[in-house]
Amino acid sequence: MEPVLKIEHLTKVYPDGTVALSNTSFDVHPGEFVVVIGSSGAGKSTLLRCINLLVEPTEGDVIFKGEKVNQSKSKQVKHIRREIGMVFQNFNLIDRLSVLNNVLHGRLGYTNTIKGSLGIFNKKDIKEAEAILERVGLKQQKYKRADELSGGQMQRVGISRALAQMPRLILADEPIASLDPASSKNIMDHIYNICQEDQLTAIVNLHQVDVALKYATRIIGMQHGQIIFDGHPSQLSDKVIDEIYDTKKPPLVNAQ
Ligand SMILES: Nc1ncnc2c1ncn2[C@@H]1O[C@H](COP(=O)(O)OP(=O)(O)OP(=O)(O)O)[C@@H](O)[C@H]1O
User: Which of 143, 166, 189 is the last residue of a domain?
Assistant: First the structure.
């Protein structure tokens, strides 16, 4: 099967000289649930941000469905980006907008720019957004302002907005870092189950090794901008964990 995503010799050097990613290469195949682990500053966020061009790589290529994302013209970038849904640690919702309108923002890549900026969406988009909210158990909250929700509910809106894009690939950057253990489990269950049901591919950055082991079909371990482990969760030995975190005590949360 052709990879859905190819990362080739990706390097990111920030303007201050920080080398966040160094000559990183790997392929992701359809249906994989890849969890990227590594200590703070390892380059996990930079990697995801390079994939959807929130950050411009210094060298190397990101190839999504056979197209070089980083060398595409702006119109193609819009088309590529709408198939890559992003879930953020701090949710990135628009507080003053309703839950439904936040989800509809996921349709902007498919909407005429003027209508989108005025918040005018067609009936089909609204029905689709409502169906997604029902899936994550938020249909009753659709007219609430986003800032009236709990953290776990906000993240379910973040997931719904990503799904409204009709993505092929979900990128989640520490989606549970701001949540309590019960909400964390709920959010990881939603992301994992939706990816299974819709046959989506996912790359999820996590700090918690036990959560990674529970959900991942493949784990990538990063250190200092480089991949130092790439394999099945069963291959992630204590020794490898020590190497990735440069410690004998990896961070844990309770993820029954
Ligand atoms: N805009 C920026 N300018 C300069 N350096 C940056 C910038 N963003 C990130 N960095 C640096 O790049 C390196 C990798 O950061 P990144 O956020 O990708 O790591 P991370 O593994 O996601 O860390 P965390 O788990 O803390 O989010 C770090 O040294 C960080 O300080």
Answer: 166
CATH number for the domain spanning 16: value is 3.40.50.300
Q: Mind listing the pLDDT tens digit for each residue in 79-117?
A: 888 899 999 999 999 999 999 999 999 988 777 666 666
Residue owning the nearest CA to atom 31 of ligand 1: 41
Domain boundary among 103, 132, 166: 166
Q: Measuring from each residue's beta carbon to the nearest atom of ligand 1, which residues come in under 6 Å?
A: 14, 16, 18, 20, 38, 40-46
ipTM of predicted assembly, 2 dp: 0.97
> Which of 177, 189, 194 lies closest to 37 in space, CA to CA?
177
| Cα 119 to middle of ligand 1, angstroms | 34
What is the domain count for the chain?
Answer: 2
Tens of pLDDT, residue by residue over 162-173, are 999 999 999 999
Distance CA 23, CA 7 (A): 10
Question: The tokens 């493949």 sit on which residue?
Answer: 218
> 90, 178 in Cβ contact below 8 A?
yes
Q: Which residue spans within the chain are E strands per DSSP?
A: 5-13, 19-28, 33-37, 59-64, 67-68, 84-87, 169-173, 201-205, 218-223, 226-231
- Cα(46) to ligand 1 centroid in Å equals 6
